[in-house]
Protein backbone atom coordinates (compact mmCIF):
# COMPACT_ATOMS: atom_id res chain seq x y z
CA UNK A 1 0.00 0.00 0.00
CA UNK A 2 1.06 3.57 -0.59
CA UNK A 3 1.34 6.17 2.13
CA UNK A 4 -0.84 8.48 0.04
CA UNK A 5 -3.70 5.95 0.30
CA UNK A 6 -4.10 7.07 3.92
CA UNK A 7 -4.54 10.75 3.14
CA UNK A 8 -7.79 12.54 3.91
CA UNK A 9 -8.66 16.21 3.69
CA UNK A 10 -9.05 17.82 7.12
CA UNK A 11 -10.12 21.45 7.62
CA UNK A 12 -7.78 23.13 10.10
CA UNK A 13 -10.67 24.30 12.28
CA UNK A 14 -11.44 20.65 13.18
CA UNK A 15 -8.07 20.19 14.91
CA UNK A 16 -8.94 20.41 18.61
CA UNK A 17 -6.86 23.03 20.40
CA UNK A 18 -8.23 22.53 23.91
CA UNK A 19 -9.75 19.58 25.78
CA UNK A 20 -13.49 19.42 26.42
CA UNK A 21 -14.90 19.60 29.93
CA UNK A 22 -15.68 17.29 31.52
CA UNK A 23 -13.33 14.72 30.02
CA UNK A 24 -16.02 12.22 29.06
CA UNK A 25 -18.22 14.81 27.27
CA UNK A 26 -16.36 14.36 23.98
CA UNK A 27 -18.16 12.74 21.08
CA UNK A 28 -17.83 9.03 20.39
CA UNK A 29 -18.12 7.40 16.99
CA UNK A 30 -18.93 3.69 17.25
CA UNK A 31 -17.64 1.77 14.23
CA UNK A 32 -18.66 -1.81 13.48
CA UNK A 33 -15.59 -3.42 11.95
CA UNK A 34 -17.64 -6.09 10.16
CA UNK A 35 -20.24 -3.88 8.48
CA UNK A 36 -18.60 -0.44 8.51
CA UNK A 37 -21.75 1.04 10.09
CA UNK A 38 -21.27 4.01 12.42
CA UNK A 39 -23.21 5.44 15.34
CA UNK A 40 -22.78 8.91 16.83
CA UNK A 41 -22.75 8.97 20.62
CA UNK A 42 -21.01 10.66 23.56
CA UNK A 43 -18.01 9.14 25.30
CA UNK A 44 -19.98 8.76 28.53
CA UNK A 45 -22.21 6.31 26.60
CA UNK A 46 -19.29 3.88 26.22
CA UNK A 47 -20.35 1.59 29.12
CA UNK A 48 -23.46 0.63 27.10
CA UNK A 49 -21.15 -1.11 24.63
CA UNK A 50 -19.11 -2.99 27.23
CA UNK A 51 -20.05 -6.41 28.55
CA UNK A 52 -19.40 -8.34 31.72
CA UNK A 53 -16.11 -10.27 31.38
CA UNK A 54 -14.68 -7.72 28.94
CA UNK A 55 -11.31 -6.22 29.83
CA UNK A 56 -10.06 -2.69 29.22
CA UNK A 57 -6.29 -2.51 28.72
CA UNK A 58 -5.01 0.92 29.80
CA UNK A 59 -1.57 2.47 29.34
CA UNK A 60 -0.60 4.02 32.67
CA UNK A 61 2.40 5.98 31.39
CA UNK A 62 2.75 9.56 32.61
CA UNK A 63 3.98 12.44 30.45
CA UNK A 64 7.08 14.29 31.64
CA UNK A 65 6.84 18.11 31.51
CA UNK A 66 9.91 17.81 29.34
CA UNK A 67 10.07 21.14 27.45
CA UNK A 68 12.62 23.39 29.18
CA UNK A 69 14.67 26.45 28.19
CA UNK A 70 18.38 26.61 28.88
CA UNK A 71 20.72 29.58 29.09
CA UNK A 72 24.13 28.83 27.59
CA UNK A 73 27.15 29.52 29.76
CA UNK A 74 29.44 32.30 28.50
CA UNK A 75 27.15 33.53 25.69
CA UNK A 76 23.74 33.67 27.42
CA UNK A 77 22.04 32.23 24.31
CA UNK A 78 18.63 30.63 24.99
CA UNK A 79 17.96 27.14 23.62
CA UNK A 80 14.79 25.06 23.88
CA UNK A 81 15.36 21.47 25.03
CA UNK A 82 12.83 18.67 24.73
CA UNK A 83 13.76 15.56 26.70
CA UNK A 84 12.79 12.62 24.51
CA UNK A 85 14.10 9.55 26.33
CA UNK A 86 16.22 8.67 29.34
CA UNK A 87 19.22 6.68 28.21
CA UNK A 88 21.24 5.93 31.32
CA UNK A 89 21.21 7.46 34.76
CA UNK A 90 21.37 11.23 34.16
CA UNK A 91 21.83 11.15 30.36
CA UNK A 92 18.86 12.02 28.16
CA UNK A 93 18.30 12.16 24.42
CA UNK A 94 17.02 15.66 23.59
CA UNK A 95 15.71 17.71 20.71
CA UNK A 96 17.23 21.21 20.70
CA UNK A 97 16.16 24.43 18.98
CA UNK A 98 18.20 26.09 17.58
CA UNK A 99 20.49 23.07 17.44
CA UNK A 100 23.53 25.01 16.24
CA UNK A 101 23.77 26.63 19.69
CA UNK A 102 23.89 23.26 21.45
CA UNK A 103 27.21 21.89 20.27
CA UNK A 104 29.15 19.11 21.95
CA UNK A 105 30.65 20.38 25.19
CA UNK A 106 28.15 23.22 25.64
CA UNK A 107 26.82 23.73 29.17
CA UNK A 108 23.35 25.15 29.93
CA UNK A 109 21.56 26.38 33.04
CA UNK A 110 17.82 25.78 33.48
CA UNK A 111 15.46 27.40 35.98
CA UNK A 112 18.09 29.82 37.36
CA UNK A 113 20.53 27.00 38.05
CA UNK A 114 18.08 24.43 39.42
CA UNK A 115 19.20 22.13 36.62
CA UNK A 116 22.50 22.02 34.70
CA UNK A 117 22.97 20.23 31.38
CA UNK A 118 26.09 19.39 29.39
CA UNK A 119 25.86 18.28 25.75
CA UNK A 120 27.92 15.08 25.55
CA UNK A 121 27.41 14.24 21.89
CA UNK A 122 25.31 14.86 18.78
CA UNK A 123 23.62 12.04 16.85
CA UNK A 124 24.78 11.87 13.23
CA UNK A 125 21.50 10.22 12.24
CA UNK A 126 18.95 12.82 13.37
CA UNK A 127 20.87 15.60 15.11
CA UNK A 128 19.45 14.80 18.54
CA UNK A 129 21.65 15.71 21.50
CA UNK A 130 22.71 13.45 24.36
CA UNK A 131 22.77 15.60 27.47
CA UNK A 132 23.99 14.83 30.99
CA UNK A 133 21.86 16.63 33.59
CA UNK A 134 22.69 17.37 37.22
CA UNK A 135 20.55 18.81 40.02
CA UNK A 136 19.83 18.52 43.71
CA UNK A 137 17.37 15.67 44.17
CA UNK A 138 15.24 14.11 41.45
CA UNK A 139 15.30 15.50 37.91
CA UNK A 140 11.59 14.66 37.67
CA UNK A 141 10.83 16.96 40.59
CA UNK A 142 12.80 19.76 38.95
CA UNK A 143 11.07 19.21 35.59
CA UNK A 144 7.70 19.31 37.32
CA UNK A 145 8.66 22.74 38.67
CA UNK A 146 10.30 24.36 35.62
CA UNK A 147 9.10 22.33 32.63
CA UNK A 148 6.04 22.57 30.39
CA UNK A 149 4.11 19.85 28.58
CA UNK A 150 5.50 18.80 25.17
CA UNK A 151 2.23 19.32 23.30
CA UNK A 152 2.08 18.18 19.67
CA UNK A 153 3.04 20.84 17.09
CA UNK A 154 -0.53 21.13 15.77
CA UNK A 155 -1.75 22.44 19.16
CA UNK A 156 -1.17 26.20 19.28
CA UNK A 157 -3.18 27.04 22.41
CA UNK A 158 -1.42 27.16 25.77
CA UNK A 159 -2.49 24.40 28.15
CA UNK A 160 -3.94 25.92 31.33
CA UNK A 161 -3.79 22.76 33.45
CA UNK A 162 -0.90 20.28 33.01
CA UNK A 163 -3.08 17.43 34.24
CA UNK A 164 -5.37 17.70 31.22
CA UNK A 165 -2.57 16.19 29.13
CA UNK A 166 -2.41 13.24 31.55
CA UNK A 167 -4.85 10.36 31.92
CA UNK A 168 -6.50 10.13 35.35
CA UNK A 169 -4.74 6.77 35.84
CA UNK A 170 -1.22 7.88 34.78
CA UNK A 171 1.53 6.87 37.21
CA UNK A 172 4.69 5.65 35.42
CA UNK A 173 6.81 8.65 34.39
CA UNK A 174 8.51 8.38 31.03
CA UNK A 175 6.43 9.60 28.06
CA UNK A 176 7.08 12.45 25.66
CA UNK A 177 3.40 12.41 24.61
CA UNK A 178 0.11 11.29 26.14
CA UNK A 179 -1.75 8.08 25.22
CA UNK A 180 -4.62 10.31 24.15
CA UNK A 181 -7.45 7.75 23.90
CA UNK A 182 -7.30 7.53 27.68
CA UNK A 183 -7.80 11.26 28.21
CA UNK A 184 -11.58 10.78 27.91
CA UNK A 185 -11.96 8.66 31.05
CA UNK A 186 -12.94 10.05 34.45
CA UNK A 187 -12.48 8.18 37.76
CA UNK A 188 -16.27 7.96 38.10
CA UNK A 189 -16.62 6.45 34.63
CA UNK A 190 -13.94 3.83 35.34
CA UNK A 191 -15.76 2.91 38.54
CA UNK A 192 -19.06 2.59 36.63
CA UNK A 193 -17.34 0.28 34.15
CA UNK A 194 -15.86 -1.90 36.90
CA UNK A 195 -19.26 -2.23 38.60
CA UNK A 196 -20.58 -3.61 35.33
CA UNK A 197 -18.13 -6.52 35.63
CA UNK A 198 -15.56 -5.16 33.19
CA UNK A 199 -11.98 -5.74 34.30
CA UNK A 200 -9.12 -3.25 33.90
CA UNK A 201 -5.53 -4.25 33.15
CA UNK A 202 -2.69 -1.72 33.27
CA UNK A 203 0.33 -1.91 31.01
CA UNK A 204 3.00 0.70 30.35
CA UNK A 205 4.35 1.95 27.04
CA UNK A 206 6.34 5.16 27.14
CA UNK A 207 5.24 7.16 24.10
CA UNK A 208 8.09 8.67 22.09
CA UNK A 209 8.04 11.64 19.74
CA UNK A 210 8.27 9.21 16.84
CA UNK A 211 4.49 8.95 17.15
CA UNK A 212 4.30 12.42 15.49
CA UNK A 213 6.88 11.76 12.78
CA UNK A 214 5.40 11.61 9.29
CA UNK A 215 5.85 8.56 7.08
CA UNK A 216 8.27 9.86 4.44
CA UNK A 217 8.44 6.83 2.14
CA UNK A 218 5.83 6.17 -0.54
CA UNK A 219 5.81 2.40 0.06
CA UNK A 220 4.31 1.80 3.53
CA UNK A 221 6.34 -1.38 4.05
CA UNK A 222 9.63 0.55 3.74
CA UNK A 223 8.92 2.77 6.77
CA UNK A 224 11.23 2.32 9.77
CA UNK A 225 9.16 2.46 12.93
CA UNK A 226 10.45 4.20 16.06
CA UNK A 227 11.19 2.11 19.15
CA UNK A 228 9.38 2.47 22.48
CA UNK A 229 9.77 0.77 25.87
CA UNK A 230 6.92 -1.28 27.34
CA UNK A 231 6.13 -3.26 30.49
CA UNK A 232 3.42 -5.88 31.02
CA UNK A 233 3.11 -6.80 34.74
CA UNK A 234 2.14 -10.35 35.72
CA UNK A 235 -1.19 -9.08 37.12
CA UNK A 236 -2.15 -7.56 33.75
CA UNK A 237 -1.12 -10.70 31.88
CA UNK A 238 -3.27 -12.84 34.19
CA UNK A 239 -6.34 -10.59 33.72
CA UNK A 240 -5.95 -10.55 29.93
CA UNK A 241 -5.49 -14.33 29.68
CA UNK A 242 -8.45 -14.93 32.00
CA UNK A 243 -10.58 -12.64 29.81
CA UNK A 244 -9.66 -14.64 26.71
CA UNK A 245 -10.35 -17.92 28.50
CA UNK A 246 -13.82 -16.75 29.61
CA UNK A 247 -14.82 -15.51 26.16
CA UNK A 248 -14.60 -11.81 26.98
CA UNK A 249 -13.14 -9.13 24.76
CA UNK A 250 -9.71 -7.58 25.24
CA UNK A 251 -10.38 -3.91 24.50
CA UNK A 252 -7.28 -1.78 24.06
CA UNK A 253 -7.55 1.85 25.12
CA UNK A 254 -5.35 3.51 22.54
CA UNK A 255 -2.90 2.39 19.89
CA UNK A 256 -0.12 2.27 22.51
CA UNK A 257 -1.92 -0.43 24.51
CA UNK A 258 -2.54 -2.27 21.24
CA UNK A 259 1.14 -2.12 20.22
CA UNK A 260 2.19 -3.33 23.67
CA UNK A 261 -0.02 -6.43 23.58
CA UNK A 262 0.59 -7.29 19.94
CA UNK A 263 4.35 -6.86 20.29
CA UNK A 264 4.43 -9.18 23.29
CA UNK A 265 2.08 -11.71 21.65
CA UNK A 266 4.23 -11.76 18.50
CA UNK A 267 7.35 -12.31 20.59
CA UNK A 268 5.99 -14.83 23.12
CA UNK A 269 3.04 -16.44 21.33
CA UNK A 270 0.76 -15.31 24.16
CA UNK A 271 0.50 -12.56 26.79
CA UNK A 272 2.87 -12.99 29.70
CA UNK A 273 4.84 -10.81 32.08
CA UNK A 274 7.23 -8.93 29.82
CA UNK A 275 9.49 -5.89 29.53
CA UNK A 276 11.16 -4.93 26.27
CA UNK A 277 11.50 -2.34 23.52
CA UNK A 278 9.25 -2.58 20.49
CA UNK A 279 9.30 -1.09 17.02
CA UNK A 280 6.29 -3.10 15.85
CA UNK A 281 4.63 -1.52 12.80
CA UNK A 282 0.98 -2.45 12.30
CA UNK A 283 -0.57 -1.77 8.91
CA UNK A 284 -3.21 -3.51 6.74
CA UNK A 285 -2.48 -7.20 6.40
CA UNK A 286 -1.36 -7.53 10.02
CA UNK A 287 -2.81 -10.50 11.90
CA UNK A 288 -3.92 -9.49 15.40
CA UNK A 289 -3.20 -12.09 18.08
CA UNK A 290 -4.74 -10.46 21.16
CA UNK A 291 -6.84 -7.31 20.66
CA UNK A 292 -10.59 -7.75 20.11
CA UNK A 293 -11.75 -4.12 20.16
CA UNK A 294 -10.15 -0.67 20.21
CA UNK A 295 -10.84 2.76 21.68
CA UNK A 296 -8.87 5.44 19.87
CA UNK A 297 -8.86 9.07 18.75
CA UNK A 298 -8.90 10.40 15.18
CA UNK A 299 -5.35 10.42 13.81
CA UNK A 300 -3.26 12.45 11.38
CA UNK A 301 -3.49 11.73 7.65
CA UNK A 302 -0.78 9.36 6.37
CA UNK A 303 0.32 8.53 9.94
CA UNK A 304 1.32 5.11 11.30
CA UNK A 305 -1.63 5.43 13.69
CA UNK A 306 -4.30 5.62 11.00
CA UNK A 307 -2.54 2.66 9.35
CA UNK A 308 -2.87 0.65 12.57
CA UNK A 309 -6.57 1.48 12.88
CA UNK A 310 -7.09 0.51 9.23
CA UNK A 311 -5.35 -2.80 9.83
CA UNK A 312 -7.87 -3.60 12.56
CA UNK A 313 -11.13 -2.19 11.21
CA UNK A 314 -10.49 -2.45 7.48
CA UNK A 315 -9.11 0.23 5.17
CA UNK A 316 -12.43 1.11 3.47
CA UNK A 317 -14.33 1.17 6.78
CA UNK A 318 -11.82 3.52 8.38
CA UNK A 319 -11.49 5.93 5.47
CA UNK A 320 -15.30 6.12 5.19
CA UNK A 321 -15.57 6.70 8.94
CA UNK A 322 -13.02 9.52 8.76
CA UNK A 323 -14.90 11.09 5.83
CA UNK A 324 -18.06 10.94 7.95
CA UNK A 325 -16.24 12.43 10.94
CA UNK A 326 -15.15 15.42 8.85
CA UNK A 327 -18.69 15.90 7.50
CA UNK A 328 -20.12 15.68 11.04
CA UNK A 329 -17.47 18.10 12.32
CA UNK A 330 -15.87 15.82 14.86
CA UNK A 331 -12.83 17.21 16.69
CA UNK A 332 -9.53 15.62 15.65
CA UNK A 333 -6.20 14.54 17.16
CA UNK A 334 -4.92 14.64 20.76
CA UNK A 335 -7.66 16.73 22.39
CA UNK A 336 -10.29 15.58 19.92
CA UNK A 337 -13.14 13.08 19.93
CA UNK A 338 -12.97 9.29 20.19
CA UNK A 339 -13.86 6.20 18.21
CA UNK A 340 -14.84 2.79 19.55
CA UNK A 341 -14.19 -0.02 17.08
CA UNK A 342 -16.34 -2.96 18.14
CA UNK A 343 -14.77 -6.39 18.11
CA UNK A 344 -15.96 -9.64 16.64
CA UNK A 345 -17.37 -11.46 19.67
CA UNK A 346 -20.24 -9.03 20.32
Sum this structure up briefly.
This protein has 6 helices and 17 strands.
Question: If you had to describe this structure to a student in words, what would you say it looks like?
Answer:
By secondary structure, this protein is α/β, with parallel strands linked by helices. Helix content is 19%, strand content 28%. It has 6 helices and 17 strands. It has helices spanning 139-146, 187-195, 234-245, 255-268, 304-313, 315-327, and strands spanning 27-32, 38-42, 55-59, 61-63, 67-72, 78-88, 91-97, 107-110, 115-122, 129-134, 172-175, 199-205, 228-232, 250-253, 274-278, 293-297, 338-342. Strands 2-1-17-16-14-3-12-13-15 form a 9-stranded mixed β-sheet. Strands 5-6-7-10-9-8 form a 6-stranded antiparallel barrel. Strand 1 (27-32) and strand 2 form a beta hairpin. It is globular and about 65 Å long. The chain starts with 26 loop residues before the first strand and ends with a strand. The mean pLDDT is 95.
Amino acid sequence: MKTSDFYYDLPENLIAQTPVEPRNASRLMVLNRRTGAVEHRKFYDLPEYLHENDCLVLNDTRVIPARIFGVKEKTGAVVEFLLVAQKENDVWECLCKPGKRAKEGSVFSFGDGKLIGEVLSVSEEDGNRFVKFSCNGSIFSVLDEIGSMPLPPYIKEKLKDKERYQTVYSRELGSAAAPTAGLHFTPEMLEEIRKKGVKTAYVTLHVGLGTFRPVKVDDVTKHNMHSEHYVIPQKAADIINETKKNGGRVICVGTTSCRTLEASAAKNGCIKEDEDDTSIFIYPGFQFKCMDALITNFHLPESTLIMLVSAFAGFDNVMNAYKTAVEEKYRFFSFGDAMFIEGDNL
